[in-house]
Specification:
This protein is an alpha+beta fold. The chain is 41% helix and 14% strand. The strands form nine sheets. The protein has an eight-stranded mixed beta sheet. It has a seven-stranded mixed beta sheet with strand order 25-24-23-26-31-28-32. Strands 13-17-15-16-14 form a five-stranded antiparallel beta sheet. Strand 10 and strand 11 form a beta hairpin. Helix 3 packs antiparallel against helix 4.
């Protein structure tokens, strides 16, 4: 191994010294370098043969699928991909014309629904083939093969398409209808026989199966069907609108191809909605518009892009009309002329972005920067701007259009080399394109002496000298090919260079979604893969050689189904290029760090395995109002450009090589801890050396399917073995798991692995026939005690029958905790809906308000508990709703002020931990406008189910006060702000009339700075309901006379007017002095209270409030809501309808415990 002792943080000046030291240690002259190259080739070939003999399917850096039919699987995937590509082109041809007439919108919706039907068929076939040909790789370890195959539902999806065809083609004159239905029946019968045969593997003719179930459906059904559907809207508009609709809740077509959904058949993510959601009886056969058709009609946009995730994980996350990750993003639509990922001429999306920038903001420089791999053979010649996978180079579109450029061609394998080609015109030169010139980056000047290039990092060090000298400060595009480097190169090259391209196109590992950050060590990754790469024919097409020896290497063959065949490795090598790339979140982090040097970029979109970033100052040119750097935004872009793109199932065989478990990273029902464990297993299994990540794999070191608690306890995170050099040996390994496997192979006793690459490479030390002299603490390192592991396994095997002795109560508690954790993560999509504030579309207000599920106000729409979603059609029920015979809600009122948000966050946290985690009531946050960031903070503060409710008349001061000079002057004399006085008025009366509370019986008022200092063990709402109470209070305190000026006087006038005796009830006598009939200023403090809503939203209470409101005292004198509540309760409620709750509660300087023997103490 060649070690490189240089840290970029110590400055670039230290490189030459480190390089000289390294040359002195490893290489004496050019001849030794050449011998080293030939020796490396020989060692690579020998090590490959040795590994195949002793460790089949366990080669470093590549993990062939553990199945004999892997070649057939890859062939089947290739054929499916071809069918998908053909169908996608067919669909785009019929969907590119923007609908204008209403009937055209309906037909566009139907075309999209039919296309989605076919995608589900194709995906079901893919999953079935994967499970049949390679169940060990395609089956989740937690599932059984029989259940997984049953869940494919290929026959059901074929039947859904057949039903949709019947629905949208009601005109019997369609000639193709009868043969199409006959073919669908044949396809279903074939699928029935195929599924009934089970996982037959090689016994199935997959070409015939693909033709019968998929290919013929495209050519003989979908093609004529789309043609007829697209033309029918122009022939009879009324017929189009009136037909193709189903209100049959049992017909799957009513959920997909019908633009009207039956009222009782909405697509919820949890449990069915009640058929009468709005309190009004609906006529039988009634329906509602789908969100998709509403959005299409409102935006005059073309049909949504096709979207479908893997058929066996993360259900619903890719549903464009139901997923919070894809719906409601204002930046989702493109400008109208950008209808597809690539235009008709094959130009990438970024070319259209450049056109928009030039038309809106500034002129283009017509130059670009590109880092491409050396490839003079077949591979390099196949690169194009419409190429597939590794052959994709978008800048070739610019090159063919006459752009000037600096193109660096780089070989990252020995013999390392780099060449700069200045094509077209020089950067900054206004002259037209001239002849291309070439420059050897490693020897840019005509100097004597050999140049030793020892690593990829050394190449980039040399490139940097020339890179800085470019005289065009604003190239149009920068492109990095995945065969050259990963995002670390971006950080290195642009940190010191005065270059700011308009658009960055950077490769990523698309398997890893935000917010997970992983930056592999690119040089170490290819060091691990190089022996396998040399044995593959792919080596010839990629790496150039100085001698003929390289021409013959890797030419050995092998059977097509042989796990060690170089031809088979060819299929895996494509995936390896992306395994060595940074995750999307890592690229975000790198660019955020560089923003301090005014290198500011924001993610625009993800195009499969490339992330496209745009400079901050150009965002508005692309219809982007504000920059969003949140991980949630990046995750939605990742879903849009990768996970929910049907093409991603076949892209470079990435998903099938990585394993089905990696797809769970997109599932919101999987916890972050589980996702971290999945990522750690992936990195270890694929032997990916990691330079940095934002999660700790040490805590998941024993979380593999085969590992147990005993094995995990023998791991030593943050430690390293030291000493006893006679027993130790070292090697380069890709991961801690690889180091452990290497140790076990040598029958060692102890191992230490350094993932931080302190000595230049990720080294593994193993001790054989002895143990380390000592064990030291080393942050980030990990060690393993093999003797401990052997003893633990022996002990556990002797206790195999002891599991039944586990305490039952502990098992029950663990099961309950696991169930609650599962509920928490299943609710994650609903939490995203809570944050989103969807703009009002034409027609939305009618459907929300007529059903009572929500409302639209001030240009946006909001849902009422328990509804979520773009049309409030999804249910987010409480865990205990069905166990209660009453309904209740908790509510706050807050502003967008930072102090209020700082107050409400800990209040919500304590509300959940001390009370609501056992009762799970919905929480409504009343507000007069909250930023998205503050809404996100509020939702993230706890696990409470949050809904936001806008108060539209919160600061509506009456004209009688603002237009009269005397009263307007009085408004300014009150010390309390208008916002505070508006709060008092709102909580005095109008709060009870808010539509969001209409369906609840009880409401608990909470203050942003109120909290529960201890656990609330009993539910005061339930106690109130059982006791038949109307009002519940917690404590009494006096108010300031100056804060309620004239309030008692006007209340006395009201009592006289309504013939109410001021001392006529027991409650009034508690607050009114008998000697002078004066109020004693004591009152119910309603910063926490529970009310029976029906009483407070009806007369006489509302009559009293309207009277006080007409006086203007809330604005002129700051009359408090607690004062109104106290006197109103005293006037009309008997003592037995009022209840004092005994709960621990604190607010500002007041705090009490429910147990009088305890007292509140300040935390910290």
């Amino acid at each position: 191994s060649i070690f490189w002792f240089w840290s970029r943080q110590h400055g670039r000046g230290s490189f030459e010294a480190a390089h000289a030291q390294r040359v002195a240690l490893e290489l004496n002259d050019q001849r030794s370098l050449d011998e080293g190259h030939r020796s490396m080739r020989l060692r690579g070939a020998l090590s490959l043969l040795w590994l195949c003999a002793y460790l089949p399917c366990r080669l470093d850096g590549l993990r062939p699928l553990p199945c004999s039919a892997q070649k057939q699987l890859f062939v089947t995937y290739e054929n499916l991909h071809g069918t998908l590509t053909h169908f996608s082109g067919l669909y785009e041809g019929y969907s590119q014309v923007r609908p204008k007439l209403v009937a055209e919108h309906v037909k566009a919706f139907q075309l999209h629904a039919l296309a989605q039907d076919f995608l589900e068929i194709l995906e079901a076939f893919r999953v079935f083939a994967c499970l049949s040909l390679c169940p060990a790789s395609c089956l989740d370890p937690a599932d059984s093969l029989v259940e997984a195959l049953a869940n494919v539902r290929l026959v059901e999806k074929l039947n859904n398409l057949q039903l949709d065809i019947e629905l949208v083609t009601t005109d019997e004159s369609f000639d193709f209808k009868a043969p199409a239905q006959q073919l669908m029946r044949e396809a279903k019968q074939y699928a029935v026989n195929l599924v009934a045969g089970g996982p037959a593997g090689a016994g199935v003719d997959w070409d015939e199966s693909l033709s019968a179930c998929v290919a013929k459906v495209v050519s003989r059904v979908m093609y004529p069907l789309m043609k007829v559907v697209s033309l029918s809207a122009k022939q009879n508009e009324s017929h189009t609108i009136l037909h193709g609709v189903s209100f049959d809740v049992d017909n799957p077509a009513s959920r997909s191809a019908s633009y009207l959904y039956p009222v009782g058949n909405r697509r919820e993510l949890s449990v069915p909605l009640p058929q009468d959601c709005g309190g009004n009886l609906r006529p039988k056969g009634a329906g509602e518009f789908s969100f998709t058709i509403l959005h299409s009609l409102a935006t005059a946009a073309s049909t949504s892009r096709l979207s479908l995730g893997p058929g066996n994980v993360a259900p619903g996350v890719c549903a464009r009309d139901a997923s919070p990750y894809l719906v409601g993003n204002a930046r989702l639509p493109w400008p109208r002329r950008w209808r597809t990922h690539r235009d008709e001429d094959g130009a990438p999306r970024f070319v259209q972005m450049l056109d928009q920038i030039e038309a809106s903001v500034l002129d283009l420089s017509h130059v670009f920067l590109a880092l491409r791999p050396v490839g003079s053979r077949t591979w390099g010649q196949n690169f194009s701007c419409s190429g597939k996978d590794l052959e994709y180079d978008p800048t070739l579109c610019l090159e063919s259009a006459g752009w000037g450029a600096h193109v660096y061609s780089i070989n990252v394998h020995p013999p390392f080399r780099a060449e700069l080609r200045i094509l077209g015109r020089r950067l900054g030169d206004d002259a037209q394109a001239g002849q291309s010139t070439y420059l050897n980056v490693l020897k840019p000047y005509a100097t004597e002496g050999a140049t030793h290039t020892l690593s990829v990092e050394h190449i980039f060090y040399k490139i940097d000298f020339i890179w800085r000298q470019a005289n065009e400060p604003s190239p149009d595009v920068f492109f990095l090919h995945p065969a050259v480097h990963n995002c670390h190169a971006v950080e290195y090259l642009f940190t010191g260079a005065p270059l700011k391209p308009k658009i960055l196109i950077i490769p990523i590992n698309p398997l890893i979604p935000p917010p997970f950050e992983v930056m592999p060590r690119f040089d170490a990754w290819w060091h691990i893969l190089r022996p396998i790469l040399r044995a593959s024919p792919f080596w010839k097409d990629w790496v150039q050689h100085d001698d003929e020896e390289g021409e013959e290497e890797g030419s050995g063959g092998g059977g097509a189904g042989d796990a060690a065949s170089p031809r088979v490795y060819e299929d895996y090598l494509k995936a390896s290029f992306w395994f060595g790339q940074c995750s999307l979140a890592t690229v975000d982090k790198v660019l955020r760090g560089m923003a301090k040097k005014k290198f500011k970029y924001a993610l625009h979109h993800v195009d499969h395995s490339f992330a496209v970033y745009v400079r901050y100052d150009l965002q508005k040119a692309l219809s982007i109002e504000s920059v969003d750097l949140s991980s949630a935004f990046s995750f939605s872009r990742w879903l849009e450009g990768w996970f929910c793109d049907p093409d991603s199932r076949y892209y470079s065989e990435l998903e099938v090589v990585a394993g089905v478990e990696m797809q769970k990273l997109a599932d919101p029902a999987v916890s972050d801890a589980q996702k971290e464990a999945i990522l750690c297993r992936f990195l270890e299994t694929q032997r990916v050396p990691v330079q940095s990540r934002n999660f700790d794999c040490a805590q998941h070191a024993g979380s593999s399917q085969s590992g147990g608690a005993g094995e995990q306890s023998c791991l030593r995170p943050d430690s390293r073995g030291w000493g006893n050099d006679a027993a130790v040996s070292d090697s380069v390994q890709g991961s801690a798991r690889a180091c452990e496997d290497h140790c076990m192979l040598l029958n060692c006793t102890y191992w230490t692995y350094d993932p931080t690459a302190m000595y230049g490479q990720p080294l593994c030390w193993v001790w054989k026939d002895g143990r380390p002299g000592e064990v030291k603490t080393e942050k980030g390192w990990v060690s393993g005690d093999v003797d401990c592991r052997r003893e633990m396994k022996a002990m556990l095997s002797g206790q195999s029958g002891s599991a039944d002795s586990k305490d039952t109560s502990v098992a029950v508690a663990e099961a309950e905790a696991e169930a609650k954790e599962d509920i928490k993560w299943r609710r994650e999509p609903f939490r995203l809906w809570a944050v989103q504030q969807l703009p009002e579309l034409p027609g939305t207000r009618y459907f929300l308000e007529s059903s009572g599920r929500g409302r639209c106000v001030q240009g946006f729409c909001e849902c009422f508990p328990p509804f979520r979603g773009p049309l409030c059609e999804q249910l987010d029920p409480g865990e205990f709703d069905n166990a209660r015979n009453f309904t209740a809600v908790l509510h706050y009122l807050t502003s967008d002020d930072a102090d209020d948000i700082d107050d409400i966050e800990p209040s919500l946290t304590r509300l959940w931990t001390q009370y609501n985690r056992r009762f799970d009531y919905p929480v409504v946050i009343f507000n007069d406008g909250l930023s998205e960031e503050n809404r996100r903070r509020i939702v993230a503060a706890s696990e409470n189910r949050i809904w936001f409710a806008y108060v539209d008349d919160y600061l509506a001061v009456p004209d009688m006060l603002t237009k009269d000079p005397h009263r307007r002057a009085m408004l300014d004399e009150v010390k309390w702000s208008l916002g505070y006085r508006g709060m008092c008025r709102f909580r005095s009366g109008t709060i009870f009339l808010q539509p969001v509370l209409r369906k609840f019986q009880y409401a608990m008022t909470l203050d942003t700075d109120g909290y529960f200092p201890a656990e609330v063990k009993s539910d005061p709402i339930e106690e109130m309901h059982v006791g038949g109470k109307v009002y519940t209070w917690s404590h009494l305190l006096p108010d300031l006379p100056g804060a309620v000026k004239h309030f008692w006087d006007y209340s006395l006038m009201y009592m006289r007017m309504k013939n109410i005796e001021p001392l006529g009830t027991p409650i009034l006598r508690q607050f009114v002095r008998e000697d002078d009939v004066q109020w004693n200023y004591q009152l119910y403090m309603n910063d926490i209270e529970i009310v029976l809503l029906d009483w407070f939203r009806s007369d006489p209470y509302q009559d009293y409030f309207r009277y006080l409101d007409s006086i203007g005292g809330f604005w002129l004198h700051r009359w408090g809501d607690h004062a109104v509540r106290t006197i109103a309760v005293g006037m009309w409620l008997p003592q037995d309808k009022v209840f004092e709750m005994n709960i621990p509660y604190g607010h500002q300087n007041y705090c009490r415990c429910s147990n009088p023997e305890l007292e509140c103490v300040r935390e910290g």
